[in-house]
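User: What would this chain look like folded?
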Amino acid sequence: MENIHELKAQLASPKDIVIISHRNPDGDAIGSSLGLYHYLLSQGHAVHVVLPSEYPDAFLWMPGIQNIIVFDSDQERTREVCERAQIIFCLDFNSLDRIDKVGEIIQPLNSVKVLIDHHLYPEPFADYVMSDTTASSTAEMVFDFIVLMGHRPDISRATADCVYTGIVTDTGSFKFSTSPKLFRIVAELLELGVDDYKLQDLIFNSLDEKQLRLLGHCLYNRMEILPEYRTGIITLTKEDYEHFDIVRGETEGIVNYLLKMRDITMAAFITEQPSIVKISLRSKGDFSVQDICRKHFKGGGHRNASGGFSFQPLKVTLRKFKELLPEYKDALNNY
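Assistant: Here's the prediction, encoded as structure tokens.
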């Protein structure tokens, strides 16, 4: 981060601060935001966390989550805290369109804006930018940010739990984007008291009966395997959403089950939403799904985990995806 000393000087006295992350927040968005929240509170700042939309119930246990302001359900409060903020931290997104109407609120504000993110191609909307595409997660970068501020000894158990949550979810329980540096950070978090077994149990073993039945439906009725391209596909229709009464967060992780097959390199989860079709891709090894999402589905993300969308109907989008596979056949089969 350039001019880190300038930002450190601004944070040396109490400020009104807002932390914002992206719509449809995942574990990294929530974990990095709450991790930074607890750290900044410990430094004497007045801090609010804003999310454009609701978070999954699997994270209800997290310390401080009850204080999050959700724009979709409290637009007036969101506008109030953003307009009062002296500093706005933007976490786990690289462009203002990822926070929808919240971006329209903060863009014209004179508040100091700080971006902390690990996605490619960050847009130049922030005054201070901490960008590292080699980082496993934005949560890992929040840990690095605290160290840069010179406050490593001030990392609390609450901050450690939240940072660990962001790391473990964005790495798929340490399967993706790992590094020796990451494991050294995780070791520090454990030394601070993080109970990794308990946290992983809270995060990953919180399904209810409906979600298990939905998973069974996806694997038995909606799964298609294309062995020639080492690719598995699961689709969900609007009728599926109505039948199972699916709400946000209940399909999280389903795509990863396809990668449990030995001969599958790429997994696709394609779902029919009210106005768009969403595409979620995962892969093994060096095969980049980020390239497919960026080039063909107006999206992006990481090498092994990316997403995008289409305004075409589900069947048309599915056909388009399958027609792309011959272009990637050699790479898929070289895993």
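The first strand starts at residue 16 and ends at 20. If you want, I can go into more detail on any region.
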